[in-house]
Design goal:
Shape: elongated
Oligomer: single chain
Distance between the termini: 113 Å
Number of strands: 40
Radius of gyration: 45 Å
Structural class: alpha/beta
Largest sheet: 25 strands, mixed
Helix content: 10-25%
């Protein structure tokens, strides 16, 4: 059965262009043990490509197309893809107009001349990841137009035997050859130059690196500019020593990768002979060590043309840490590098007293990722003395110094040196995983072109006014995974070009819920993406983001929001709103209107998963809108709402209809009860009003009289020294004692109700007037006092008088012992602040002391 379909149609397919194979690309990961060539910014295998229109073949396709995927271009060239088909043999007959042939990821163990007979227009052949054990010298005899050949990851263990001399003689147009990941460790393989001498146009060669490998004079005929020395997993490349003459046959070499080659020694002479070398990767050779790399090897590169140097991971992680200063960077400083990568080298300290990398002013990219830098003291000096740096990456620092050492370094540093306003070229700054607070205020002293800043995973606690000063060109800022609790209202005043702001994994819950938060984002008129997820946010002010009219993506997920009331009126470009994993119960009518208006103009996606949406009568309108709106909700078919009995149900039409029916029943009942209750209150109010109409009139005039009386008393402030509150059962002996002692002996004016209250007035009004006109109120507490309602009234009026006038009014006198548990709560509270005295029974001496203390307390 034909695999190709019967209808011809056009599809867009990316195909390799026939010319300019190497100049416009950077080779990258060619295998597990292969090298990473080129800068990090050019990751991936980038071929020069063109877009062609290909046709899927019909019933007249070649036999090979019954099994493989075949397409044709407008020139009738055939593209055959036989990869991942578990083939054990290559096809004996393949159409002669085949331009592109892929047999990769199969189980082919043998290929012969017959498999490629007559394919003289074939330009791409991929045989990688098979089980090929040996090649014949005439296998590729007819492939005179071939430009790219992949033989890596096969079983040709002994190079000089399994790839005999003459195998590549007819491939004079070949540009790319990969034969790495074949040779086994200690297999005795040798590199025979005569096997490769006729590849006169060869640009890129990826081959296994093994002991005593040498590219002799036979390679002078080739045009190799890129050499990747790789190896077979799990062993990888195993060269050990690079001799003086290892690359003697490659004078045109521009890119050299020795990554993961188990190097212990690299001859400086070998490097000095490579006059055209521009890109050198010696990374992942931990036996080399920083001393050798920064010493003789760096010295050999002083007069070279090397622009990119990768020495990542050249230090054994179990050895001592390294320090970067002017002594060990003496030679590196003299190389005109544009990109320098020193990741994973146990660097724990960088000299901040002297300039580094600053002699040539050519350095544009500096990477110090995954080292042991605990602080950023060196940043000021490094940035201001290297104005050419465009990308500084200090990400993922992982080693924490002990606190004593950190304190000593901080003391040594003292104050910052003063710099004049500098012009720097840096566009990218990355410093993550520092495990301590990091300040980037150094950029405020520069004229800079910074566009990208990532300072995530540090311990920054606040974004202050000066931290983002003068960053007018900044478009990307990542401050996630810090400890930020507060953001200054003017922190973003200069970041007017900011488009992406990531603040997740911080502690901004309180800061973003205050009134001051509304000014934080005012300058960010061009902000398109904001992430404030996982910040313990309980509420957001409605106008928090009103000025961010360019907003496209808002992520507020995984917080504690009960309501979402942001004003979205200006967000005409909003395309994604993430609210999942909050506590939202509903969306208000206003928010629903905003979202509907946006969704009517373009696609809008909202994520409300894992919230606490409610199924009740008040929320019916929201549930109906959720089912019918033009806004797309992520996973809407799985949304649940919670009923009053704590159970939940899927939000669908059936659920909403059932809820509506139930709410209509309750509505009728509520309306009926409301009408009856209203009628009952109206009738009763009318009856009571009519029956007590004269009482009401009397109460009104008494209130007016009482107000006038209080006004007169206030004018005669403290007419009495004290008002005495007592129970009727205690009155006779008390009145006599008060009169004899306080009024006669101490000449005080007392208000005693049984004697001084005017007859005919309301008792409550007399009490209020008397307490207000007295400096103190003395509570004569006894068992009868506690039970007397008028005594309780007097005590509460006295308490209110003290609160209203903000003075101490009450004095408590115990006439008898009363257990604390029997005291009313008002007295219990008064015991904390009021003066408390015990009335003596018989002792005359004690009585004299008592009356003196009481008189003094009243007079205070």
């Amino acid at each position: 059965m034909f695999k190709c379909i019967l209808i011809t149609f056009l599809v867009n397919q990316i195909t390799l262009i026939k010319t300019e194979w190497l100049p416009n690309r950077n080779p990258a990961e060619l295998s597990d043990g292969a090298a990473y060539i080129g800068s990090r910014r050019s990751s991936g295998l980038k071929w020069t490509v063109v877009e062609k229109s290909l046709q899927v073949l019909g019933p007249t396709s070649p036999v090979v197309c019954n099994t493989c995927n075949c397409t044709k271009d407008h020139k009738e060239y055939l593209y055959v893809d036989c990869s991942y088909l578990s083939l054990e043999n290559a096809f004996q007959t393949v159409s002669q107009n085949t331009f592109w042939l892929d047999y990769s990821y199969n189980y082919i163990s043998e290929v012969k001349y017959g498999n490629f007979r007559g394919l003289n227009i074939l330009q791409y052949l991929n045989l990688q990841y098979n089980s090929i054990e040996c090649l014949d010298s005439d296998t590729f005899k007819d492939l005179t137009d071939l430009m790219e050949l992949h033989l890596d990851h096969n079983h040709m263990f002994v190079l000089q035997i399994h790839i005999p001399i003459g195998t590549f003689d007819s491939l004079k147009n070949l540009r790319v050859l990969t034969v790495h990941a074949n040779v086994q460790k200690n297999s005795g393989s040798k590199l025979i130059g005569r096997t490769f001498r006729n590849l006169i146009n060869l640009n890129l060669l990826a081959i296994d690196g093994f002991r005593k490998i040498k590219f002799d004079e036979d390679f002078l005929n080739t045009n190799v500019s890129t050499l990747v020395l790789a190896g077979s997993p799990p062993w990888g490349c195993d060269i050990d020593v690079i001799e003086d003459d290892t690359f003697s046959g490659l004078p045109k070499l521009q890119t050299l990768s020795l990554r993961k080659c188990n190097l212990s020694s690299l001859s400086p002479v070998a490097l000095s002979q490579l006059k055209s070398l521009e890109n050198l990767d010696i990374s992942s050779n931990i036996r080399m060590g920083m001393t050798q790399l920064l010493g003789p090897i760096a010295k050999a590169l002083i007069n070279s043309t090397v622009k990119i140097l990768n020495i990542n991971e050249i230090t054994d992680p179990f050895e001592s840490v390294n320090k970067l200063d002017n002594n060990n960077l003496l030679y590196i400083n003299q190389v005109n590098l544009m990109e320098l990568y020193m990741d994973s080298n146990c660097i724990d300290l960088i000299d901040y007293h002297n300039p580094l990398f600053s002699k040539s002013y050519t350095l544009k990219v500096l990477s110090l990722r995954q080292n042991m830098l605990f602080n950023a003291f060196f940043l000021d000096k490094l940035i201001l003395t290297n104005p050419s740096i465009e990308e500084l990456d200090c990400g993922n620092q992982f080693q924490v110094w002990n606190e004593d050492r950190f304190a000593a370094e901080r003391a040594r540093r003292g104050t910052n040196a003063a710099f004049n306003l500098s012009v720097i070229s840096m566009k990218t700054f990355i410093f993550t995983g520092l495990k301590s607070s990091l300040s980037i205020s150094v950029f405020g002293d520069t004229q800079n072109a910074l566009e990208y800043i990532d300072i995530s995973s540090n311990q920054i606690q606040i974004l202050d006014d000066d931290d983002l000063h003068s960053l007018f060109n900044l478009t990307f800022l990542n401050v996630s995974d810090n400890l930020i609790e507060n953001v200054s209202q003017t922190a973003f005043r200069d970041t007017i070009s900011l488009k992406y702001l990531d603040m997740k994994y911080n502690r901004l819950g309180y800061a973003l819920g205050t009134e001051e938060a509304m000014d934080i984002f005012l300058p960010l008129k061009h902000l398109e993406t904001l992430n404030i997820s996982k910040n313990m946010i309980y509420n957001l002010k409605e106008s928090l983001l009103t000025q961010c009219a360019s907003m496209r993506v808002i992520d507020i997920s995984e917080n504690y929001l009960d309501n979402f009331d942001l004003n979205l009126h200006n967000f005409r470009n909003l395309s994604f709103l993430n609210l999942k994993n909050n506590r939202i119960q509903t969306l208000s009518y206003t928010v629903r209107s905003y979202l509907s208006n946006i969704g009517s103009n373009h696609e809008l996606v909202v994520d409300l998963e894992n919230n606490k949406l409610t199924c009740n009568c008040d929320n019916i309108e929201f549930l109906k809108w959720l089912l019918t709106t033009n806004v797309s909700f992520t996973g809407k078919q799985f949304y649940k709402c919670y009923l009053s009995n704590s159970s939940h149900a899927l939000i669908n039409s059936a659920t909403v209809q059932a809820l509506e029916a139930e709410c209509y029943k309750y509505l009728a009942l509520i309306l009926s009860l409301t009408s009856l209750i209203t009628l009952f209150f109206v009738v009763n109010f009318s009856v009571i009003t009519f029956r007590y109409r004269w009482h009401i009139v009397y109460w009104y005039y008494n209130v007016v009289r009482s107000r006038d009386r209080v006004s007169n008393v206030r004018q005669q402030l403290f007419q009495y020294d004290a008002y005495f509150a007592y129970a009727d059962n205690d009155s006779s002996p008390i009145i006599v004692a008060l009169h004899n002692k306080l009024e006669i002996e101490y000449n005080m004016r007392l208000n005693i109700r049984d004697r001084d209250f005017p007859l005919g007035d309301v008792n409550a009004l007399n009490i209020v007037d008397a307490i207000g006109a007295s400096r103190k109120t003395v509570l004569l507490v006894s068992k009868h006092f506690i039970k007397n309602k008028w005594c309780k009234f007097e005590m509460n009026i006295a308490i209110m008088e003290g609160i209203k006038t903000n003075r101490q009014v009450c004095i408590i006198v115990y006439l008898e012992d009363i257990p604390l548990r029997f005291l009313p709560k008002e007295i219990s509270k008064l015991l904390q602040d009021a003066i408390v005295l015990d009335f003596p029974k018989e002792n005359p001496c004690s009585q004299n002391v008592f009356w003196a203390c009481l008189a003094n307390s009243i007079s205070e």
